[in-house]
Amino acid sequence: MTRTSRPLLERLAAAWRRSDAIFDLLAPGALHSRPIALRHPFIFYLGHLPAFGWNQVCRPLLGAANRRPDFLDLFERGIDPHDMEGGTVAEPAWPAVDEVVAWRDEVRAALREAFPVVAERPPDPGHVMARGGRAFHVVLEHELMHQETLLYMLAQLPHAQKRPPERRPAHSLVPGESRRDVRIPAGRAVLGADFDAQPFGWDNEFPQRCVDVPAFTIDSTPVTNGEFQEFVRAGGYAEPAHWTAEGWRWQRARGRASPDGWVERDGELFCRTLFDELPLRRAFDWPVSVAWVEASAYARWRGARLPTEAEFHRAAYGSPDGAPRRHPWGDAEPTPRHGNVDFQRWEPVPVGSCPLGVSAFGVHELVGNGWEWTSTVFAAHAGFSACMPDYPGYSADFFDGRHHVLLGGSFATDAELLRRSFRNWFQPHYPYVFSKFRCVRDG
Q1: Which string of DSSP letters, residue by residue, matches 367-390?
Q2: Average pLDDT, stretch 154-180?
Q3: Which among 69, 104, 222, 344 is least buried, having the fewest CB atoms inside 10 angstroms?
Q4: d(CA 442, CA 407)
Q5: What pLDDT score does 132 carry?
Q6: Same structural domain for residues 386 and 427?
Q7: pLDDT tens by residue, 240-282
């Protein structure tokens, strides 16, 4: 039995266990730490996850009242796209941790009790999320997405505020796959999905649309730390011609001349991981993780550009016979041999380490190891509908022309989220995501 074929409530319980394990990685007192100014401290997410579950299931579908409406208000919403303009988020007074944990456990129990009640209700044409357990899918995938958020926040914490797991895989430092050019012939890319064709999807995944994509050439592997260091050494951070106007202002204001995850100590560069630091020379073959503005500057320096969303889909899910694939490698469920996903590791591996994950056109690592930046601005597919009545702004609030689409998933992306239609998005100067990128050229 695969993970996605297990009963939905069982999958939700497993997600809760993993969330608890992630919070356990914080040292005592670190719950109130706020390592990223654009996000709330960790304690907010301790309450936000159950609050979201209640507000998606118990309140709208059962009309239930919660004994702590103040918690529902306090923990209802994370960052707003407009909050990011000012560079910070206002911080309220937080309740005691033990109160939040006790309330979280009450909400989880209520969700377990609600599941059979909701599942046995006749279909409600007026509430599409009540059909087929979709409201519980919303709660599950929201939990999984925030697990990745918690980990990239954790990556920004000083090591003294973390408690590393007792067992974790050793760093993978073998040589990576050499980059080469792969020509993708002109053809059709299938983006999005039909609403009734899969058990669940977020509103921005619908409806399905086909896009004709001209021929292009794409890197067979993502850009590595070693390759990006060439850009740094060539003075790429000091040359405005490589940058967008906004990107140039951003990197001048932050005063850095290298990626956020690189740290200099005693004249040597180190690559920061979740729980330690590695000499950068040892992680040369890992994909570099940078903000969109840095990725696009590098691509311009190389005389190339970032792929569009449609080009990524064509390279990842297209095939010479024209039929779209479920995954780059075919229809098989993801395994550790297909890509570095699903929390197998706490960090990237050298590019091209999972050759069974290669696409029909011979492109490596289009899923896993890091979310891939595209040049496409996050927007609705034609025919979009905000189909989640209790979360109408999930996507629409971010159709503001200021977010770019990322695809493919990272090492901290659950297998539930590896469907072809899934889309991620962030602002172009947000450097904290577990990201990567590759370059394309026309023709």
Answers
A1: SSSSEEEEEEEP-PPTT-----TT
A2: 95
A3: 69
A4: 20
A5: 67
A6: yes
A7: 999 999 999 999 999 999 999 999 999 999 999 999 999 999 9
Boundaries of domain holding 102: 3-161
Taking only the tens place, the pLDDT of each residue in 41-57 is 999 999 999 999 999 99
Instruction: Assess whether 184 and 122 both reside in one domain.
Output: no
Quick one: CA dihedral 410, 75, 64, 111, positive or negative? positive
DSSP string, 146-183: HHHHHHHHHTTS-GGGB---S--PPP--S--PPP-EEE
Residues 120, 241 within the same domain: no
Q: Which residues 6+ apart lie within 8 Å of 136 measured at CB?
A: 8, 9, 12, 57, 111, 115, 118
Q: What is the pLDDT of residue 3?
A: 61
CA 142 to chain centre: 11
Question: Which sign does the torsion angle of CA 266, 268, 271, 277 carry?
Answer: negative
Domain CATH number, residue 26? 1.20.120.450
**What share of the chain in percent tops pLDDT 90?**
87
3-state helix, strand, coil in the chain (%, to 5): 40, 15, 50
Per residue in 352-380, pLDDT (tens digit) is 999 999 999 999 999 999 999 999 999 99
Q: What number of residues does the chain have?
A: 443
**Exposure class string for 408-443: b at 16+ Cβ within 10 A, else e:** bbbbbbbbbbbbbbbbbbbbbbbbbbbbbbbbbeee
Same domain, 138 and 184: no
**Within a domain: residue 168?**
no
Whether 299 and 237 map to the same domain: the answer is yes
**Residues 221, 145 share a domain:** no
Total structural domains within the chain: 2
Q: With respect to residue 169, please indicate whether it lies within any of the assigned structural domains.
A: no
Q: Quote the pLDDT of residue 344.
A: 96
| pLDDT reading at 81 higher than 70 | no
Q: Sort 302 into a burial class: Cβ within 10 Å, 0-12 / 13-18 / 19+.
A: middle
Q: 190 and 150 in one domain?
A: no
- Is position 105 within any domain? yes
- Residue 266 DSSP SS3: coil
- CA atoms of 349 and 138, how far apart (whole Å): 30
Give yes or no for a contact between 153 and 48, defined as CB atoms under 8 angstroms apart: no
259 lies in the same domain as 344: yes
46, 104 Cβ separation under 8 angstroms: yes
